[in-house]
Amino acid sequence: MLLTLPQARRGWIVMALGTAQTVGWASSYYLPAVLAAPMGASFGLSPVWVFGAFSMAMVVSAMVGPWAGGRIDRIGGRGILMLSNLVFACGLAMLAVAPSAAVLFLAWAVIGLAMGMGLYEAAFATLAGIYGREARGPMTGITLIAGFASTVGWPLSGMMLTHLGWREACTGWALLHLCLALPLNALLPKGAERIAALPTAPEAGGPPPPRLALWLLAFVFAATWFNSTAMAAHLPGLLQAAGATPAVAIAAGALIGPAQVAARVLEFGLLRRFHPLASARLAAAAHPMAALCLMAFGGPAAYAFAVLHGAGNGILTIAKGTLPLALFGAAGYGARLGWLNAPARAVQSAAPLIFGAALAAWGLSAVWLTTGIGILAMAALLLLKRR
């Protein structure tokens, strides 16, 4: 049985966790876009090497995720999330003082460890432990807040880079983890005070989830993360290959963030009345529709492409937390989520390189790659059945 929280306390938990997630994403996933070039230049390296170190960090996070999820299942998420802030701060501090490229790579490996313990998968597992099957709304709430991580993170990293330097920018993010994100995560309920009751006997002792369903969902996550990361790295180049001017490509790219947030508001309102499978199927169709529009109309469709892709990506981010909960229940949720997302993290690390090579070789036709992957994700979601 689920114990009810006062609505105000639930709001504070969502605000605290969402803000902490914003710091985590801004200081890891969105950091290389601003700091890779000066970071590499200080060691005489191409920015490609820094992005390679970041890709290694994502592989490390994939390896750590199942362990972190299992720990959250057993003891709650508060301690793991607080530990992730300490590890984030350590990795960022190592970047700030790195004397060589070897230490740079080591620092990114430490940041990857923190990513596996402290980003969305860990936050979703924490909310599942607190709210049980009622976690869909809070999950959407934290993604609404953290959806602004790039909006906040890129300008703040750029400002620190301009006025202080890239090493000082890393120090600034480390301090934000210690002085802001860590205290906010400390506000979460302790493991011994979890608000959701333990799983009932039928759920805890029932049959395990069908293996096919697990494989299908793991594929969906890997496919959608590939497309999301490929577009994040190469969207302006793709739109220019379609005939858009550089100015239009940049302006269209700026619409992705607002489109993601708008779609999450829709998920929080209208779509929450439906099963998460319905939302996920609708969202998975968005990128193929956007791609077909771009190939049919070229540059003038740049804005439509960005809005459709961004909206689909916004809802799919939530689906990565809500679908496993709705399909398989709360028992063992954290560990299961870690395993389901491990292939996605590994694929994500290679997406910019693979799609970049396709774009260089095929031009606009490279979008057929992501379109095909998106269609396969839709097919996998159609094969999944409601529980």
TrEMBL record:
The UniProt record lists the keyword ATP-binding: no
Pfam families attached to this UniProt entry: MFS_1
Listed transmembrane segments: 12-31, 43-68, 80-99, 105-130, 142-166, 212-235, 247-266, 286-308, 315-333, 353-384
Domain Major facilitator superfamily (MFS) profile: 13-387
Sorted UniProt keywords: Membrane, Transmembrane, Transmembrane helix
Molecular function GO labels: transmembrane transporter activity
Protein known as: MFS transporter
